[in-house]
Amino acid sequence: MRRRSRLLLLVLSLPLVCGLLALGIWQVERRAWKLDLIERVDARVHAPAVPAPTRAEWPAIDKTADEYRRVQLTGTFLNDRETLVQAVTDLGGGFWVVTPLRATDGSITLVNRGFVPGDRRDPASRPEGQLDGEQTVEGLLRMSEPGGRFLRANEPAADRWYSRDVAAIAAARDLDGPVAPYFVDAGAEAVPGGYPVGGLTVIRFNNNHLVYALTWFALALMLAAAVVFVWRHDRNRD
User: Fold this and answer.
1) What is the Cα–Cα distance from 235 to 238, expressed in whole angstroms?
2) pLDDT beneath 70: ranges in the chain
3) Which of 59, 95, 79, 63 lies closest to 129, judged by CA?
4) d(C-alpha 192, C-alpha 156), whole Å
5) So what's the pLDDT on residue 130?
6) What is the per-residue pLDDT for 38?
């Protein structure tokens, strides 16, 4: 009976140990992928600006390959269609000023021009920053943020925005042209009057995969050690 119990213990524990080892190996692979992603994004952020994707290129835009690419675009700001999106930054709480930029071909790209505190949410409080005429913007390509934030959904009807949802903002502002599926975070170039403040993009990737891998490997080792202990202890009783 003891021999059968030991065999049953082995049969039940072996798949668990293998499963824990597999999870640890998976986390090691995920860590390698994450480090490669961080390296590629860092290279994009510090590379010279390239022309923003054109309308013909929009369908091919990919989050993994294109987000945080430094781009440049030229057009005219539609200042009367700006949208304020709630934000918390190193400068405190306030709003992102998201303004459509119309290019000469009629296409429109939403530009996150930067941050304003609550007392500057009214465009009349920052008239110098309402740029007229053709402007060239350099910044980072960002993917749309549909829906809102965790536990805080956008409310277009009430003009309350918690994320930069390109499609929803375009619809709410009744933009009469093809709208790019991405937005651009403007860089830190000085703006007349000081607002909005650009260049506040935070690039952060959680990379806890090594901790997870060590945890899975440790559990596998502990389980294997426990099985060996029980096996030897029971065998000595025979």
Assistant:
1) 5
2) 1-10, 231, 233-238
3) 79
4) 30
5) 94
6) 73
Cα–Cα distance for residue pair 84/75, rounded to 1 Å: 20
Separation CA 206–CA 225 (nearest Å): 32
CA distances (Å), origin 91, targets 24, 114, 163, 166, 197:
40, 11, 18, 24, 9
What pLDDT does residue 3 have? Answer: 63
CA dihedral 148, 154, 159, 162 (to 10 degrees): -30
CB 138 within 8 A of CB 189: yes
Position 197: which residue type? V
Q: What are phi and psi of 141, to 5 degrees?
A: -70, 130
In terms of DSSP H, where are the helices of the chain?
A: 2-46, 63-66, 166-172, 209-236
Structure-token pair, residue 8: 């049953």
pLDDT recorded at residue 235: 60
DSSP code for 160: B
* pLDDT in the model for residue 16: 84
The pair of three-digit structure tokens given for residue 166, joined into one six-digit string: 């390109």
Q: Please, are residues 137 and 186 in contact by the beta-carbon 8 Å criterion?
A: yes
What lies within 8 Å, CB to CB, of 207 at 6+ separation is: 31, 34, 35, 38
Q: Any idea what the Cα angle at residue 82 is, between residues 135 and 133, rounded to 5°?
A: 25
Residue 148 CA to residue 141 CA, distance in Å, equals 19
Print the SS3 string covering 62-88.
CHHHHCCCEEEEEEEECHHHCEEEEEE
Tokens for 184, please give them: 């651009």
The amino acid occupying position 52 is: A
Tokens of 33: 């992928």
